[in-house]
Structures are given as structure tokens and as C-alpha cells.
Amino acid sequence: MSTNDWVLLIIIVLVVLLLLVGLVWALRRRAEVKRREEAAHIRDRVTEKQPVVEQRAVVAEQTDAEARRAAADADAKAAEAARLRNRADNQRAAADRSREELDADVARANKLDPSSGGEHRVDGDQRVSGDHHVGGDHRVGGDSRHGYTGRETGENDLPPRV
Q1: For the CA atoms of 119, 121, 126, 127, what is the dihedral angle to 10 degrees?
Q2: Sequence spans of domains, the chain
Q3: Is the pTM of this model over 0.85?
């Protein structure tokens, strides 16, 4: 091979290398442009969907506020239920004390006059004796023929003891 052939071969190799470098550069540039276009497209979609996402966040916050209100209402109702249970327990205890006092009064009356022969009890299984009825509805004493039935259910309705 002559010198001219070597020079020509080197020039051809350089041209091919330059073409390959140019091709690689063009492909990279093209890929970079595609990535930029895709990124711009994604940013546009995000911009379009952002109001929808913000609306969902507002709805979620409203739902959370509603849940907090419902929980507060439930807590208030639970507190009211506990208060009412406590009140019922106190009323039940007062009724039991009143029943015990009445039982004591009946026992004292029977002790003072054992000849009356009647059984009087004030509890869930009351008995009737004479014109006086102590019923399951907690009516105490009285003559129902004359419209007087004694103490109806309730609290603190007992007359003062003499």
C-alpha cells in the first residue's frame, strides 16, 4: 500500500467515525427532545388534574369534619346515657330505701297491732289486704274506691314522716 492509500484509508475512517459520532449525537438529541416533550405533557396533565385533586382534598376535609362532629355527638350521647343511667340508679336506690321504710312501718304497725291479721309487704310481690292495695306499680296504700291510690311511681313523692 502506498502512502496515498494510507491517507485515503485514514480519511475514510475519520469520516466514518465523524458520521457515527454525528449519528449518536442526533439520536441522543432526539431522545432528549422526546423526554422533554413527555415531561411537558405530564406537567400539562398534572395542571389539568390539580383542581380535581384539590376538590377531593376539600371533600375529604369536609368528611373528616363531619366525622368529628358525629364523634362529638356520639360522645355527648354516651355522656347523656351515663348521666341517665346514674339518675336511674339513684332513683332505684331512693325507691328501694322508701320501700324499706314502708316495710319497716308495716312491721311496726303489725307489731303494735298483731291482731289485724293482714299481711302487708312493699316489694315486687305485694299482697292485698282489706281496702289497701300495694301493687306491682308501686302504688302505696289508699282506697282506690274513693279515687285515692296513694303514691304513684316517681321520686320524692312520699309525704313527710310524722
Answers
A1: 10
A2: 3-112
A3: no
